[in-house]
Automatic annotation (TrEMBL):
InterPro entries: MCM_complex-bd. The keyword Nucleus applies. This is Mini-chromosome maintenance complex-binding protein. One of its GO terms (molecular function) is chromatin binding. The keyword Repressor does not apply. One of its GO terms (cellular component) is nucleus. Its main location: nucleus. Pfam families: MCM_bind (PF09739). One of its GO terms (biological process) is DNA-templated DNA replication.
Length: 412
């Protein structure tokens, strides 16, 4: 059968990078083929994967894969991608025997297809204690704000479960607003999230970064990566407080739109000379800003300063391992919405609107109801419940009320 080739930059994921390193690929120049790597000025290892033809729908851009094959000699990139010159870098080649997709959880200890029933059962045995400990851990970088920490926890558990007629359900982009010009929480929060997430990237949104780098992929003879071209299940932390006064150029404006489309539609545009393609993705977006974010989000909250400065809580490695598995397993766990609770919520919604109309008070909108239902799903999962409970529904409504109250009041 004929062979096809593609280029993988493998160092985004430490587990893959270490396995590749075992094949003596460490002599590859750092930063080689940067146009194929999403993150600027980041250490990475590039390899060429050669494989037999597969079904056209088997692999897609930004898929995470495991490759088992034979290490070959170094080669230049194929001519139809970038014609090699005499001084062009050559890359190690792996002749693939097996190429298989990995579920977007990214956790090295879980099955390629996702967590099994035994994984879910194990995590659920200590869900409440882990949940409380994780909220404590996340509140330390957020000035001790437990409400903000709980929302970050729910944000980390969110994933898209339904796409229908342009409607995207399950996403939970979050904006944390600081009352300071420059975020003190961002670097500490970045450290905390990096310690518990398998796929995570933090980026200060400076004017220079927006104007100088591409956030979206572009295609010509070959596909050049953009910062947002990451696998499903990746968490991005963006710092808007790093933005200086100045003017966004054309590239910067397009980059902001790419981030907005990611937040609202969970799609990323791939720009080609004669047409553009919007590819569906599922990337968590957490934005720190000094006021309202430039990016439309599902939820925003003013941070409340309970303690003076953001800190990182020192915890044992065993606890971090527990956090990682809790997040990876419950995020991917199968969740079902019971007909009984659906009917109860519908009746409650109609009753609330009826009473509000009689009193002349604001009526709950369908969008507010949808937000509460989505929040309740995440609350249930965070508690290890695989269906909606009345306790989770009540807690979700209370969280929504606290968010509204915080938005209308002071953060101090």
């Amino acid at each position: 059968m004929p062979l096809t080739s593609c280029m993988f930059n493998v160092a985004i994921y430490a587990s893959v990078s270490e396995q590749i390193g075992a094949l003596s690929l460490g002599d590859v120049a750092s930063g080689a083929a940067p146009e194929r790597f999403p993150f600027p000025a980041t250490e990475h290892t590039a390899v060429i994967i050669k494989r037999h033809l597969m079904e056209a729908n088997e692999l897609s851009v930004a898929d995470m894969v495991e490759v088992i094959g034979v290490l070959g000699s170094k080669e230049h990139l194929p001519v139809d991608d970038y014609a090699p010159s005499e001084d062009a870098a050559a890359f190690p080649t792996i002749h693939a025997i097996i190429v298989r997709k990995i579920s977007d959880h990214g956790h090295p200890d879980l099955d390629h297809d996702g967590p099994k029933e035994a994984d879910v059962d194990q995590v659920r045995q200590s869900t409440q204690q882990t949940r409380e400990a994780l909220i404590d851990y996340l509140s330390a970088p957020l000035y001790g704000d437990k409400l903000a920490a709980e929302l970050v926890l729910l944000h980390l558990l969110a994933r898209i479960h339904t796409r229908s007629n342009g409607l995207v359900l399950g996403k939970f982009s979050l904006n944390l607003k600081e009352p300071t010009v420059r975020s003190a929480a961002f670097p500490i929060l970045s450290q905390a999230l990096g310690s518990i997430l398998p796929k995570f990237y933090a980026l200060p949104l400076s004017l220079k970064t927006l104007n100088d780098h591409f956030f979206f992929p572009r295609g010509g003879e070959g596909l050049s990566s953009g910062i947002l071209q990451v696998t499903k299940g990746t968490s991005l932390l963006l710092d808007e407080t790093a933005m200086e006064e100045g003017t966004l150029n054309d590239k910067g404006v397009k980059n902001v739109k790419a981030i907005a489309d990611l937040s609202v539609y969970q799609t990323l545009g791939y720009v080609f000379p004669f047409n553009n393609l919007d590819i569906s993705t599922d990337v968590s977006l957490l934005i720190v800003s000094s006021g309202s974010s430039l990016i439309p989000v599902d939820c925003s909250l003013k941070l409340k300063h309970i303690v003076g400065e953001p800190t990182i809580q020192e915890v044992a490695e065993s606890r971090l391992v527990e956090f990682r598995k809790y997040l990876s397993v419950l995020r991917m766990a199968e969740y079902k919405f019971s007909e009984e609770m659906a009917q109860e919520i519908e009746t409650e919604f109609m009753q609330q609107r009826k009473e509000a109309s009689a009193k002349g008070t604001p009526l709950m909108t369908p969008n507010e109801l949808a937000f509460n239902v989505g929040l309740a799903r995440l609350v249930s999962l965070s508690r290890g419940d695989l269906t909606l409970t009345r306790e989770a529904w009540t807690h979700a409504k209370d969280l929504a009320a606290q968010i509204r109250s915080r938005s209308n009041g002071s953060s101090q």
